Amino acid sequence: MADCKRCLLLESAGANTLDDIRQRISKLSEKEKAQEDLYAKRLEMCKKCDELISGVCMKCGCYVEFRAAFIRQRCPDANNRRW
């Protein structure tokens, strides 16, 4: 499959990786984890970013679905933070 610009793992056929990320997120403590509405809002903002390719942020190399789950994380684009 070709790279999917502005796609999350959920949309780019990364099922095994997505399952692993979801398991890791489920193990986060409540004080580490972003609320569901904030998490969803962050992912929507990531989907509008040109730096997102097949679920990976090209600014930092992270899976956005994992990074967005942490309450204390921020968008890695220091010059154009989306969240």
Characterize this entry briefly.
By secondary structure, the protein is mainly alpha-helical. Helix content is 34%, strand content 5%. The chain is globular, with a radius of gyration of 12 Å.
Strand-helix topology:
Layout: H1 15-26, H2 36-47, E1 52-53, E2 56-57, H3 64-67
Antiparallel strand pairs: 1-2
Q: How many distinct helices?
A: 3
Order of helices and strands: HHEEH
Average of per-residue pLDDT values: 90
Counting structural domains, the number is 1
Q: Largest sheet, if any?
A: 2 strands, antiparallel
- Computed Rg: 12 Å
> If strands are numbered along the chain, what order do they take across the biggest sheet?
1-2
CA(first)-CA(last) distance? 29 Å
Query: What is the share of helical residues?
Result: 25-40%
The beta-strand count equals 2
- Percent strand equals under 5%
Q: Uncertain spans, ≥5 residues at pLDDT below 50?
A: none
Global outline: globular
Can you tell me about this structure?
By secondary structure, this protein is mostly helical. It has one domain (9-67). The protein has 3 helices and 2 strands. The chain has a two-stranded antiparallel ribbon with strand order 1-2. It is globular. The N and C termini lie far apart (29 Å). The mean pLDDT is 90.
